[in-house]
Known about the structure:
Elements: H1 3-34, H2 37-51, H3 56-61, E1 89-94, H4 98-113, E2 117-118, E3 127-132, H5 137-156, E4 165-170, H6 171-175, H7 177-183, E5 189-191, H8 199-207, E6 212-214, E7 237-241, E8 243-244, H9 255-259, E9 263-264, H10 267-279, E10 284-288, E11 296-297, H11 301-304, E12 327-328, H12 329-337, E13 344-348, H13 357-365, E14 372-374, H14 382-388, H15 394-407, E15 412-419, H16 426-439, E16 443-448, H17 456-460, H18 467-490, E17 496-504, E18 511-515, E19 521-525, E20 528-530, E21 538-540, E22 546-554, E23 558-567, H19 572-583
Parallel strand pairs: 1-2, 1-3, 3-4, 4-5, 5-6, 7-10, 10-13, 14-15, 15-16, 19-23
Antiparallel strand pairs: 8-9, 11-12, 17-18, 17-22, 18-19, 20-21, 22-23
Amino acid sequence: MNISSSFRFCRFTFRKCLSRRLQWDTCDRYYCSKSSSTDQTRVVQLKNKLACGPSFQDFIKSSDKTYDACNDEHEEYHIPECTTARSLKVYFETYGCQMNISDTEIAWSILQKAGYSRTHELPEADVVLLVTCSIREKAEQTIWNRLKHLTALKKRCQKHKPLLKIGVLGCMAERLKTKLLEQEKLVDVLAGPDAYRDLPRLLSLGYRGQRASNVLLSLEETYADVMPVHQTPEGHSAFVSIMRGCDNMCSYCIVPFTRGRERSRPLSSILEEVRMLSDQGVKEVTLLGQNVNSYRDFSEQHFICSEGSTQLSRGFKTVYRTKQGGLLFSDLLDKVSQIDPDMRIRFTSPHPKDFPDEVLQLIQERRNICKQIHLPAQSGSSRVLHAMRRGYTREAYLDLVENIREIIPGVNLSSDFITGFCGETEEDHQETLSLVREVGYNVGFLFAYSMRKKTHAYHRLQDDVPAPVKQRRLEELISVFREEAAKVNMALIGSTQLVLVEGESKRSSEELCGRNDGNVKVVFPKTDLPIQPEKPQMVPITSGDYVLVKITSANSQCLRGHALIHSSLNDRKTSEHLLSKQTM
């Protein structure tokens, strides 16, 4: 700060202090005539406190002088004195998408460093945190019901659990702050998706009897320096967040308003986390983001100055200007896939507009990038897609599907669909059903439309499709989807699938289950298997193993078969060749 600007700052601060003194003088005269003696005493105390403040001479002597008003020391957040740092236990409940699972891991990492421990048993908890979803009304209603249950539990446990605090994290915290804190008074702490670093302070305020919240959205927060504490089943798979927020502004979607603008995590931070997971023996990593394939890293100057520009899928457009510079999703996918050739790489959730040929060709070339693409269509009607502001037509979407299957033969496709969007007619609905039949997906996420406040549809469109019609159309869509998924899966009967084992089947302890490259569940009997075809030594199958499974039956939900041999991503071709020689 130069001398001129320093003096202007001093003059402004002095005027501010002088203005406050005049205000207190005015208040003093008012209270002397109108208020009680208690109020007068309070005013005197405030005037004395103000008198401790800096004078004009203080600013003239040194503009850099720091000031500690009335010798008050800064009060840091703390865990209550009646407990020790390690005695407070936090319990998480996670609702919604995979991003919320990732958020839970980030929030737990932050609280762990602040001295909290974690419990997976609700009765042991001192802090209950719900990581929430606002994408649909049904998801929010589930959380409202859970909060009422937890509040009743808190009242019943007041004697032996006086410190129990309830908090809401994530999208619902940002969207419904006032209702949660002030109207319903069901929670002690609220933290939006970009405020998890503030959790220790917010909980400290909660322990002082205050209701605390921070739901501010950030243009920069990616939690790049926070290493998530992964809670993976048997350690075989993990989610890695690579970007946050969304710029697409689809008319039905609340995400840009609850999670903010797109910003990408630095490449170096992502690679560090994936290397750590590889060292821990993780066999599958899913890269996460609201619009994962629009990743663009501007963390370093030479990335910013690079000439790369957004390359959209042919026939697609955006509501925002073309972005320039940075490392793209294809760069990230290339680097991540090279870390561990025996680690599967998936990514979700993408937008169809961000599938240029270089991304598709990389998926085809790399053995460990799964040949499965999530391609959310939302509707099969160009008219409805225009109302949704999706940036493409039915024809452009089908052209993309054709291009994907040409570059990646045998690729598995999954999708999202919404029934009963604003203005959807029976003809529009039939076009959606015909799109499902034409493409042939093996996995789908299907929902009836639920209008969300703040969205473009809420302000500009009418939710004019009756609820019974939405539900009927949803049931019809589910029926058609299952028919087509069954056809796709039954085409795999007789094939050999490489399966990453997840554990025992939910229906039988005598069966194991896992997922193939296309992310379809595969169930098979529990048995010991040889490591190599020529060697008779048999080894049990455990979670995290790759095994080759011969498919013998299928339905719309899963594949069934029998395991042949232990294998890996690198050895699959060799194992299949040796097995085929044995059967000849």
